[in-house]
């Protein structure tokens, strides 16, 4: 039986202030060909200079992924010719990556699995190629942008595992604050190496690399297609060729780009213009202590407070929402806050295609909203009306409630009068309830809310309604 063996390579652009080997600004949104220097343009005689901020960011990633650290590192030249590579070579780390032999743990069907990391190394990005008709234009803003490349060992066995790994990796890098990891903007780029082997054998099959994958979902689709393509070849007695293929999102297939190069094609040799970098035990220890709280730690923290798993995952997947939630976490009811943030607040910002930071929501106003909700002054239904005004205008929640005239009436006598009126006016429904027909109580409750114009607490009213019905 043939089984898949998959390895993932991920290139991540770091959001340092300047590029990795020059002082040019590192800014994705800058006008084309404005953030460039003589070093980026590969003028003869220019020398690269290492950006310490890049090393610090790469070290954070390596420690987060449980890697061993190379305390003494050098850079290498990876030689190949392509129009987007001004120097004719790329400065990278071949023999001494900053991190190696690490792992990232994922949950697969409620079972934990370690995805082993072979290496993390620092390198520079190339120019961005822009294809216009039969011409290719180059944006040198991206030349020299710092990258870390994260390479797994061939331990992934399905497209599902690959997707879970990439989602977990993206979350961790985002929460480290070292990258935007926006696949649509190219700050996180994924490539998959796929091969098949006999289940009983330890010998790996011929691997095929898939490039040009524009989303984590498409990584899974590309892997599935490639597994089936290779299976058909082998079942027909044909050989799988080691090659590079690109993913086509229009057909959800992979297309041949070129026969795979070997490592020797790149003629790696130590970069003569770069000094060795040495990390001290103190630097490594200080970086480890400075790591922020990461997604899995947040999951455990939220779970202990009784927040449901769907809300936890929704909060963590939106870092702005999570940062806001963390800022109020110890100041309010966490379960209620999570419910409102993941429903009304998230719905509003998604509908309007804005971020939470673009709204006028303040933590003080939100805390007051939850306080009033907890005291049954308002209901979750009222929040549908209140939240948009809070986000758009920043109006005090108590003023909004007053203006909309939606404050919940908590007077027990008022509530009981309405319930008794509804019971007296609907004897047939009362009879149905007594005969065990569940729909009857829902109808009666609807009449109670209608009679009160939605100004009483539904849970409190339901409890009183059932109590009165049972006493008839």
The whole-angstrom Rg is 29 Å
The counted number of beta strands is 16
The tally of helices reads 15
Oligomer: single chain
Helical proportion? 40-55%
**Low-confidence region ranges:** none
Query: What would you call the shape?
Result: elongated
Strand order of the largest sheet: 2-6-7-10-1-11-12-13-14
Report the span from N to C terminus. Answer: 69 Å
Instruction: Give the class from helix and strand content and strand pairing.
Output: alpha+beta
Average of the residue pLDDT scores: 94
Largest sheet composition: 9 strands, mixed
**Strand residue percentage:** 15-25%
What is this structure's SSE topology?
Elements: E1 2-13, H1 52-64, E2 68-69, E3 72-73, E4 76-79, E5 89-92, E6 99-108, E7 111-124, E8 128-132, E9 135-139, E10 146-152, H2 159-176, E11 188-198, E12 208-213, H3 216-235, E13 243-248, E14 253-259, E15 269-270, E16 277-278, H4 281-290, H5 295-304, H6 309-317, H7 319-328, H8 334-351, H9 363-374, H10 380-393, H11 397-404, H12 412-425, H13 427-434, H14 438-451, H15 458-470
Parallel strand pairs: 12-13
Antiparallel strand pairs: 1-10, 1-11, 2-6, 3-16, 4-5, 4-15, 6-7, 7-10, 8-9, 11-12, 13-14
Helix pairs in contact: 2-3, 5-6, 6-8, 8-10, 12-14, 12-15, 13-14, 14-15
